[in-house]
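Q: Hi! First time asking for a complex rather than a single chain. Here are the components, and I think there are three in total. Is that enough to go on?
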Amino acid sequence: MAEQSLVVRGLNVAYGESKVLFDIDFDVAPNQIVCCVGRNGAGKTTLLKSIAGFLKPSSGAATAGGVNLIGHRPYDVARMGVKYVPQDKKVFSDLTVRENLELGSYATKDYNWDRVMEYFPKLKILLDRKAGFLSGGERQMLMIGRATLGNPKVMLIDEPTEGLAPSIVTHLKYVFGELSKSAALVIVEQNLPLVCGIAHKVYAMRDGRIVAELPGGAALTPAACEPYL
Amino acid sequence: MVNAFKWWWGILLAFGMLAAARFFLPLPFVNEVLIFSIYTIGCSFLLGRVGFISFGQPAYLAFGAYGTAFYLFYVGTNPYVGILAGVACGFICASIVGPLFVRLRSDYFALVNLALAVIVFYMMQKVLAEYTKGDNGLWFLTNIASTPVLNLGRSSEFFIFATLVAIAVWGLYKYLDDTIFGACCLATKINEAKLQFLGYSNYKVRLLAFIVANTTTALAGALYAVYLGSVSPEITAAARAADPVVVTILGGVGTLFGPLVGTLAYTALRDVLSKFIGNWELFVGFILVFIMLAGEKGLWGSAAPWLQKLFSRGKAADAMGGERR
Amino acid sequence: MDPQLLISGVIFGLSMASVYFLMSIGLSLCFGLMRIISLDQLLYYSVGAYLAYTVSVVSGNVWLGVLAGVVVSGMTALVVERFIFRRIYERELTFSMITSFGILIGGVGVIKAIWGVVPRPVRMPTPDLVTIFGTEVPVYRLMVVGIAALVYIGIWLFLNKTIIGKAIRAGIEDVEHVEGLGINVSRLFTITFVIAGALSGLAGGLHAPLIMVDPQMGLEVLAFVFMVVIIGGLGSIKGTLVSSLIVGQVVSIGSLIYAPLALMAPFAIMLLILLVKPTGLYGSTMVKK
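A: Yes, that's all I need. Here is the structure of the assembled complex.
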């Protein structure tokens, strides 16, 4: 088997006294799209944040392409090619779209925006608009576009389609497909039709544990995922 | 009866020990410790229970001290009435600024309070100089009439009075901790939103805590005024604004006996060290930074679990009642 | 009121506003980005003033002294950030407040140990007077105002035109997110803290010839700087500028009307503004996460 893009073993995370993640094992192969489903509070965001370095796990390991991620600051993790795209579409609203992208470039030393503009042509005309004035869909385009700078090996995307119009969701679905040609994607998502349309593998989470691993393909239907929501 | 004793015995033991210390420690030192610890408990309560840090405690100390001073200098001679006047003055001032201040976020709260302390300093030093005699301060030691029972003019009898007051203050704070009010205070510190869901008003809880704490501080100011027989603007100087905070941190934030232990350590250190190094601020500053970096548990915070273990080995039942922290 | 008195009063107020602005900009930036209240800025102010004194006595040039003050306070800030603040960024706000107050008090002790407690005078760099609308105004005060204006433009350009400045603005919105992009935020913090310290040092150096330099000077200016920061709102550069102009004029014009008013009036204004808007004029409602 080829070397995995992301491997998580025995990950335990606690907020103070209360444990939120229990012995998470997790594999993502290169160019794979892995989706994570589960109810609110199941620990999906916590999982992504722990891998990205924002939370300090109490034990466990996470490696990307054989490189250890645990114990590094979030910016180091990002520089190792593991990009986290947070939920709530947090763009820097006081900065213009161009400045938002410049920051992404500054962080990764990748000043080539061709791919961003190819995926999201709409951003081209919005470059000098303050990000605070963008619509939810445009913000999400900016977030994902910015994260593709530096050509990351792994992208951790948290609730990308929450509250977006169906046409934008369709577009994002196409973009995820394109992105998976160069990277492995971990997507936390509640939109089951989308999940079933793109995922090569689905992990279902409940109460801080992974309770099921569903392989992708024809057998993966919204009905099959439903019990875990 | 037994329960009441169990409830009180920690406090009585602590102050009993302090009263015993009076016989082998100099009296001014013990008196200073008593007043200072009353001064600090308000600050400790605000920081530890409500999560408000106040660098403006000297302002409330000054309200109490000047309330007493004005009474004894211009109006009457009875020190007890003077102390009451000081406490009333502190209560009124705290009730006036309180509704305004407690609405603020904790960072603004600290800044506004410190600004208040500086303003009160200038007010007493310059603006009201006509009445406060400016930097010279008010001297009224000779105005204090001797009273029956406990004559506050004599420091040995003042000591007895201050001990009784301190026991009462500690009883009050222990009581507050035990009531639902204490729980509410802690709750506003930890999670404001959830307290509101329970149907309590953050604002009211904080306001009450603010007034109680700062009236206590004013009481300490009034005691200072009577004990020293004089008050000057120096009492509210910004350079001294750190004192109660340092002592609170030194003793252990939010603990019942932290202020007492902190005051003892602080006053002793100051008396001993100021003989060797003239530069007291240097020392205060660095001890503060050091404690913060070392883990901010403070003396009592570190010692309490150890003491609890010691007691529970001997008398398990009593230790449960007496040592809550 | 006598128009001549008024004009000199306005100029005096502007020069005070300049000093307050230079100081509070640091406090405001540090709060905005790192969510700390850095009371030790007042120490760097004193350090700047004392360096201006020592170097101007040794070299005879006050400007050289101001420059030395900026450099040394920036370096002091760097040391303090590296050894103390770096450990406490993730703690609560009160934590940084207590710690920085400790640094301030301790630093005042160090200043006393080095320079003693006697207030020291600093020579005016230029004794010239210039006539504006028939009123003679000291040139130096105008220079202070000019330098503060230049600093404001410089800070504006830095924040809007350089990539580090853009990262700082982004960090003021959401520092975690900046870190997620792969930007080394602890370096960002260090840069911001050193800039803040150097500006406080500049404020001290510029203020020194206008007052006597003494160990407690940081604590004396503290109330005004706080009022500026509170009125303007923590974390806002524009608010800081507006409120320092307000406080400067109120202090100056107020003292022309009735001297004790100079101290009380800004405080009254602060209380009034807080009554209406508890986060200050331009303050956001952001809280520490």
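A: The first helix of chain A runs from residue 44 to 52. Let me know if you'd like any chain examined more closely.
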